[in-house]
Amino acid sequence: MLDELTANEFHLGISGNALDSAAVQADLKNIICSFTARLRGGSVPFDLLYLAFYDTTAKAMRISYLQAASPVALHLGLEISLEGSASGHVWSTRQRATFDRSTSDSFGKERTLLAHDRIDCLCVLPLTTPQRKLGTVALGRSADCPFSDAEVKFLEPAVGEMALALDNALHHHQVGVYQKELQEALDRCRLLREISDTVVRNLDLSELFTSISVALRTIIRHDYASLSLPDLNHDDLRIYAVDFPAGKGLLHVDLLNPIEGSLAGRALTVNKPVMVARLRYSQFPVESSSKWEDEGLKSACAIPLVSNSSTVGVITVGRTQEGAFNMRDVAMLQELSSSIAIAVQNALAFREISLLKDQLAEHRDYLERQIRVEFNFNEIKGESAALKEVLQAVRTVAPTDVPVLILGETGTGKELIARAIHQRSPRAQYPMVKINCAAIPATLIESELFGFEKGAFTGAMASKKGRLELANKGTIFLDEIGELPIESQSKLLRVLQEHEFERLGGTRTLHADIRVIAATNRDLRQMMADKQFRSDLYYRLRVFPITVPPLRERRDDVPILVRFFTEKYARRMGRKIMSISEPAMKALCDWHWPGNIREMENFIERAVILSHGEVLDVPVAELKEPTYTNLERGDTLEATEREYILQILKDAGGVVAGPRGAAAKLGLKRSTLQGKMRKLGISL
Fold it and tell me: Distance (Å, rounded) from C-alpha 197 to C-alpha 214?
């Protein structure tokens, strides 16, 4: 017989059973060791001892404790069916059972298992208390020595006491489990309350998530937490918020992770939690995985945020040690995920409302500025055939969304035509945003057009929207498109073709829901030949060209325009001008107006200022420069224009800009006059 057992195995692996606990196993082992010592003290020898507990899942007895002098056919976790087994019979009836060589061939399952190991005698006793059945205890001998009545009488109270001790241990453990579950429930309630309070106090997404992460850290320890939401193209996840106090900054807000191949992407795709005990680049072969390694993060857990059956995004937590998360952490995060999802949705909704509010304010401000613009659609004056042809083109193209290229000399009213197209389009309720490509330095044109992010260049202290964003859902009017630098033309082409762009210094792709109208007084075909203008951009802009005729080709409209401008400035200056003399009107109609309508407006304004009676005092002398005679001689228009500009420059004392400069006298913009001077070879 055995004084010391050479093998002592113990394991409780019954899934879902209260016995599946290291603490209970330790208590049970101590109880059984005390029991076996008592057996030896009471001279009850045995070669085999095993405990079998009822497995509710398998509906069978399962061996959970085993002592044997030598290897036996029995093993830990072995299932023994209730029918035809001593263990099943004893557990069911609460009556002991024994067998040896002399007994009938009952309990064949144990006999078959133990015969090979020469266990000839077996005594199985119920492991029960008055309240419940726990399992069975079996002792076996290899010698042909059946268990005597005296031994059985000694074993029964000893097993009963062990059952009570075991039951007490299980009850004690169960109380601890209940207390722990209660504490976890209280912690969850507290965390949910904190998250709710956070939502009420703060709707800024970044600050909201940081508060959630700090509250979550009290229950689930983590070094890193991030919130990722699908990007516009739905191929990537963008990090919208990060809480990583000890981080190096490699995992930051606005970092893009492809959905395919990333940890958060997998959680989003399968719509289930993904827990990784040991992070490796080979598992998630994307750029962000190497950043995780560089930051020292070794384990992680990603939980999809689901609200109303839709996945909002993914929350990811990480630790700087391996195997840091368990299924309890996953369950906790899952339970909290719906509340976090609602909080994130509220913050996103608040952000969208704020953006729409800001955009609406910007649109309102811009529209208020546009109301002050001197020309509007109702002020297109004229009845000439040439003008009617242009207005018919406006009516035709306005309801569509195609790009329009407006061509014509300076001062012909190209912006007025652009505004007429916009106001008759479905986008009329949104702004038409103008950018003069000639008035903005080449180094600043892209930042004005596309906007920039904070820190994009020296002096960029904050992010700023570009004109394209301000024109969202409306129209962008690119005046003097011929002056757009060649390096910026490719980016504008992308807007026309793909309706996408990025701010300077930014990585986030923005969508451009805009209509493009461009205007120029330059010969874009010649610029293409000179490699100054991209041909692909030209043909993309020139889907529907409109050429605005110069005033000299609209002679019939001159009297109408003269009367209109006279009334406008007379009313503004408080004058009463009733008529215009026939010689003055003839001179006005005969003048070739190199500055077109803009020149005429400035000229009439000056005439109103000079008038003191009810008749418009037209400075006819200014319309009888030598250039008029030259036209009659048949000189070229270019030569005539050159001579006229030289004369105006002379009268202005060589001054180009300013209220008394040549540009103002001609009704031209400074940049336009300088361009003409270069073209005509005029230098000061």
Answer: 13
